Task: structure prediction
Amino acid sequence: MHIAEEIRCALEHGVAPATPPALLLLAGLALRHEGPHEDALRLACTALALAARLGIGEDGRLAALHAALVTPLAAGFGQAACELVALAESAAAPRTAAVCLAGTGLVGGLPLPELARRLETAARTPAAFDDMAAASELAARARLAGVLLHGGACLPTGAAPRRFGHWLALLQSAWYAGALPQALQSAGRMVKQLGPAVPLADRLCYHLFAALALSRADCAATARQLDGHCAALRRLAPFSSDAANLATLAQAARSQREGDALAALRGFELVAGTAGREERHWLAALAWEEAAVHASSAGLDSAVRHYRRAALASYGYWGALGRIDTLRRRWQDPELASGDGRANAMLRSCGVGELGLSIAHEVNQPLAAIALHAAAARKWLRRPEPDIERALSSIALIGDAGRHAGDIVRSMQRLVSRAGSELGTVAVDCMIGEVLLLLQHRLCKDGIRIELDLGLGAERIHANRTQVQQVLTNLLVNAIDALADAPAEPKRIRVASLRTAGHVDITVTDNGPGIAPHHRERVFGSLFSTKPHGTGMGLAISLAIVRAHGGALEFEPAEPRGACFRLRLPLDAAAALPQTACVFPKPRHSP
Result:
């Protein structure tokens, strides 16, 4: 690294408006070749500070460029997407941030509905760009996201592409539409525009989608181009797990082209599994879809249906309902067309899919503990001088974990079979007092003050008391956890209740750090948690319980900061809660 010499060369003729962008591009290039080197990161920070101090008007746009070029290699695409979301919501270069977010948000795992909404909002803003080419690019990217979300024609229309991002939107749109010639043409037009200022996510998506298109083309020249795209992705793989997943997917497509179907399918499955665990559902869906295509060409009919189901599920997790509808029509498989994507998404939104994942995750914890302690017991018994005491301790822990798993299963069976008989009258304000009494020790330990505004008095509702108490306890524990590490200023949780037309409302509001904007649409998703050791099940289970009662559970940010959860329940849940309603064991509380 010769960062000091490069800085001297950049500054020897004096600072000009072009100096901070030049320094930032230099930092991005250094990171791309050397990884998160301390000197390169310092140089990137210097570029931002220099622009802000000189007031040359580049600080907002530079911040977006920093998030698109530097942050992915230094902290990951997820953090880069967070920075761009914040910039898009501020007065600092919101449209530039939206353009960068199109690719970075995709690679970083931003849910498609949120990504589409932000792009469409920026594209509709009057006079969003003085540069008509940039406006056209944003419109094309917003259209692609909208088609994946809602359906419709995939190939964009309008002004002729002039910028890299516009060609990228056309490449991706053509690939999703199955228009291979248009995809290859777009990829060819992008080669000369691949400069150092191209956002890193856009560069990765270009290489990936071009590789996928080339893997299906039958030409020696395209084979050499495919090798070039795979090599470009492999160069970035050591610096980012996202880049590594894309490189593996491109390599799997290359294996298929070479006739090694087994290696290709193995690569597709590896990427799909890894991407799904990392909540990169767009990539998991892409991998499953490619696996289905190549399994079909290899004559593996039973595998094709499995891969197609997995692709539809991953697109559903991402929120790409339009893509689901398109694939169902394209495949014309009666078993896969038993319900449309929107109906399945509605079923998932009612908590069935989320709770299936949550329960599986809950049961998996004691099973993992059993395997761990069994291995430990074998270790102590296989020593030259067996440690009987430690082995017996491990066996005792196996028994505890087994009983825990059994409790979960028995609780589910008992509550499902007796859901209807457990309905009764619930005095809501009294129940709130009981829950707070149970949590009194934690409230006192963490110095949290409770503010009550209970307006129901003796008002009762007809519901399942255990379940409603479970939901309320979960909301309060989440609020306590949010305040546990908050500053020493007064920590407050406000619990309020009131009656509305046919319903009762309970709100739990804290003045903690709140929930970041980019997490708000995922807060009720299973296995999503903002806590370092959270399981991410509490709110998913709570939401399904509330919806089974015919109610609603909503989140909104509190003012001036904090989080507010609103629980709305009908006065009589008997009609909404069927005899076979799914009721679930008490979760480990984590938002």
In short: Residues 352-381 form the longest helix (30 residues).
